[in-house]
Write a structure and sequence with these properties.
Largest sheet: 7 strands, mixed
Oligomer: single chain
Number of strands: 25
Structural class: alpha/beta
Distance between the termini: 37 Å
RNA sequence: UGGGGCGUCGUCUAAGGGUAGGACGUCAGACUUUGAAUCUGAUUAUCAAGGUUCGAAUCCUUGCGCCCCAGCCA
């Protein structure tokens, strides 16, 4: 928001900290994804917040791969995460992995045992769960809770040495089994996992859990403001407990603090990594970078720009209020970016043949069209014009309703940048479908100008010689505003069956056949399109529709 | 029915004792060689009830509603 004086609540905290001299005025944030999936638009919010804050306050922001669970994490994901952050336009100060700290974390754990504040528990997972109690019943102390420091140290070292199978024992923090906050009922901080880790290989068979690893990693890196999402709110006391008992100087304020904000939710989509993965695994979509996915890669391949994603994160703000933003806001962000930056072009998605009966056969002329109506410096291009052309099927109606500005029998319209044409006759096939229009053009209106009369409609067009291109029309993946709202039904029941339409027979102006992969265009009167880098071939591009233009005619019809 | 959070236009988000502002959406109009863009204008909100105060979205009390927590996931 450009309110100016309206700081978001994190900025307010930082400015207050700077005023009081907390952290010696330092700002050091971090973006800590777990490398177990691809980044999505929700991460983009966290990324631009953390990197943006560091930039705004002259601080630093680290990228830290939170890789404490060897069974779910893969190198493939750490590479994609880095690529996506760079594409978004951010550069990290330090690149770290939680696994960099396994040695230090282990030492912290031994220290906790020495302080008598952690113990090795032999209870099995189900037993731990039973002994923990529930929201209304306090937990009970584990029978192993009062082992001596020596015994705990010995057992913990043997856990590390690989003497016990997975699940046999855990290291637990000794806090309070009767706490009303279940997170303080002696949370597990180390578990046994005889699993290969993507970076440390087989060096470890015990791995720290999030609550233990995350806060201490923050402390090790000198993070000042550790921003996470709302669901971590009731773990903050645990965060504080661990940091305060283990980090030297923590009590004096020389430590990181956790702040929670609302995650980004958007209408007509799901955001959890688990659900996105399910869409990929069940082939509902064609991979993590399917243009319908709200992953960074998917959005990128759909034709969203990094600037538009950054813009969205600015507009949605930062609050603690659980919210769901209108996906239309994202669409508006990319429209605004592409309206000023995308060159214009003409493409006919569903061609309808037009023959200009009074235009000489065999004649062709090159007509100049502006590449951008508001930016003459972007120049013009030549588009061939001839006796046979294509216009959009939607742009003709034999019996038009009131308010239809386009072509119909006896009506004159302008072909953009070319001539006025009038429809004289309609040719139909045996089934009565309109297959061709016989029209006349007015040579005096070259360039689309006439001094003596006006026309209501201006249509885009391509010459009959125009190359064919595949165009993919994408729409939102789900038909329901909140696909997860109905507890009784799976989110996949709300998929939009029309989220992808492939048009193999679109015709594009010649320039577009040479479009470089990853280039953006506005196809006039239709929307913004992006040359797909994966599907397209040289001279044979595939265009993904990023978003339509706003269309008040569609709205008008909807009212009828 | 334990604990932790959150309630402001349709959707988001500002204002933190002194004119409830902005964005997106919607509606109406102007302009238009994109039914786009642009420009005008309009509509609509402080969860409820009490209290304090000259004055409450803001402070207090009591309700109500929604979200999160009982992984050896993060």
């Amino acid at each position: 928001m450009e309110a100016g004086q309206g700081l978001n609540f994190i900025q307010a905290i930082i400015e207050e900290d700077q005023r009081t001299g907390k952290h010696s005025g330092r700002v050091h944030t971090r973006f800590p994804p777990e490398p177990n999936g691809y980044l999505h638009i929700g991460h983009a919010k966290a990324i631009s917040l953390n990197f943006g804050l560091a930039h705004q306050y002259g601080g630093k922001c680290n990228l830290r791969l939170d890789d404490t669970n060897p069974t779910t994490e893969e190198t493939e994901y750490v590479e994609s995460i880095q690529e996506d952050i760079r594409w978004l336009g951010y550069t990290w100060d330090g690149l770290y992995y939680a696994s960099d700290y396994f040695g230090q974390l282990y030492q912290f754990a031994e220290e906790l045992i020495r302080q008598g504040k952690a113990y090795v528990d032999d209870l099995k997972p189900e037993e731990i769960s039973q002994w923990r109690g529930d929201f209304t019943t306090p937990g009970r102390d584990s029978p192993f809770r009062n082992r001596s420091v020596e015994e705990n140290l010995d057992l913990f070292r043997r856990m590390r040495a690989g003497e016990f199978p997975d699940g046999a024992r855990t290291l637990r923090a000794k806090i309070d089994m009767r706490s009303p906050n279940p997170n303080l009922r002696d949370p597990a901080i180390y578990r046994i996992r005889h699993a290969h880790h993507h970076r440390t290989g087989d060096a470890w068979c015990i791995y720290p859990l999030y609550d233990f690893a995350h806060c201490l990693s923050d402390a090790i890196e000198g993070i000042t403001h550790s921003i996470c999402t709302l669901e971590f709110e009731n773990r903050r006391v645990l965060y504080d407990w661990i940091v305060d008992t283990l980090v030297p100087g923590a009590k004096e304020g020389n430590r990181p603090y956790q702040y929670e904000m609302a995650r980004l939710n958007l209408t007509y989509t799901v955001m959890s990594k688990r659900k996105l993965k399910e869409l990929v695994d069940t082939k509902v979509v064609d991979g993590w970078d399917d243009p319908r996915m709200l992953t960074i890669r998917g959005l990128r391949r759909r034709g969203f720009t990094a600037a538009s994603l950054r813009d969205l994160t600015q507009r949605v703000g930062v609050t603690k209020t659980q919210s769901r933003h209108d996906i239309g806001l994202l669409e508006q962000c990319v429209r605004e970016d592409l309206d000023t930056n995308a060159p214009r072009a003409m493409a006919v998605l569903r061609p309808l043949k037009v023959v200009l009966e009074n235009y000489p056969e065999g004649q062709t002329e090159e007509l100049p069209l502006a590449n951008h109506p508001k930016r003459p410096e972007l120049g013009t291009r030549q588009v061939p014009f001839m006796r046979e052309l294509y216009i959009e099927q939607d742009d003709f109606m034999e019996n038009p309703p009131k308010g239809f500005y386009r072509l119909s029998p006896g009506v004159e319209v302008r072909l953009r940048g070319a001539y006025f044409i009038r429809c004289e006759r309609v040719i139909k096939d045996a089934d009565g479908r309109v297959v061709e229009l016989r029209c006349t053009y007015d040579p005096a209106t070259r360039g689309g100008n006439a001094t003596d009369r006006k026309v209501k409609g201006t249509l885009h067009w391509v010459p009959a010689s125009a190359p064919v291109a595949e165009v993919r029309l994408y729409d939102r993946l789900f038909a329901a505003e909140d696909p997860e709202a109905d507890e009784a039904r799976a989110f996949k029941e709300f998929l939009n069956p029309d989220s992808l339409e492939v048009l193999a027979g679109a015709r594009v102006e010649p320039m577009l056949a040479q479009a470089a992969p990853e280039s953006h265009f506005q196809f006039e009167r239709l929307g913004y399109f992006y040359a797909d880098p994966k599907k397209g071939l040289p001279g044979r591009p595939v265009f993904n529709r990023t978003v339509t233009l706003k269309d008040s005619w569609v709205r008008e019809q909807g009212k009828a």
